[in-house]
Amino acid sequence: MMLETIPFATVQTAQSMLPTFQLELVRSRAQSGEFAELESLLWFRENVDDWRKEKVLMQAYKEYAEAMMISSDTLRRKMAAIRAYPPEKLVYWISKGAGFELIETANTLAELAKKEPMQLIDEAVELGNENGKTMTVDELTAFALGEQKRDPALFRVNTLLSRLARFPELLKWDNDKRAKFTVWLDAGREFFS
Q1: What is the pLDDT of residue 157?
Q2: In b/e form, how buried is each residue of 153-179, taking b as 16+ CB within 10 angstroms?
Q3: pLDDT tens across 13-65, in order?
Q4: I want to staple 134 with a disulfide (CB 3.0 to 4.6 A). Which of 39, 73, 80, 97 is the partner?
Q5: What pTM did the predictor assign?
């Protein structure tokens, strides 16, 4: 792929020391990348149930991850991030500047913020930051946690618990084992609320 070279002597705005044209080009590339990745993830999501029925889901993850130039675990994490959100919502969020990292962070913070993940992402996009732009991950974290922001350990523990909650699905546990695990996990969460 041939990248354009842009001379540094382009017009700059009072708000930025970097050339406006270069910033717009980078923003456009980043957003195009997010949309391309979303398209790939949505195609994969549409086919997961069929592969699960055929008992080839793990192989599908392996092959698709390799094609996306990521690990199978990264593909699983990205699939967990987009959850069952409607494609229109995901496209809207990305078009407004919310990337996968913000979506994943909102999913993780939702319980602590006592909100639904979708509501938190909508607020990051629609309420925005002090400049009216979509919140960054750090701004969303501060917004969601409020006073709790001062305790980073709480955020790390919640992230760990959220990851643990994925184990029953990833390990394909039966309903009895899932129920026992959920009871155990909920008991552990009480220590951090």
Answers
A1: 76
A2: eebebbeebbeebeebeeeeeeeeeee
A3: 457 788 999 999 999 999 999 999 999 999 999 999 999 999 999 999 999 99
A4: 97
A5: 0.69
97: left (phi over 0), alpha (psi -120 to 50) or beta: left
How does pLDDT run across 79-129, given as a tens digit for each residue? Answer: 999 999 999 999 999 999 999 999 999 999 998 889 999 999 999 999 998
Contact 21, 87 (CB under 8 A): no
Q: What is 78-89 written as a DSSP string?
A: HHHHHTT--HHH
Dihedral angle sign, alpha carbons of residues 104, 61, 74, 88: negative
Q: How far is CA 100 from CA 136, 150, 166, 189, in A?
A: 11, 25, 18, 26
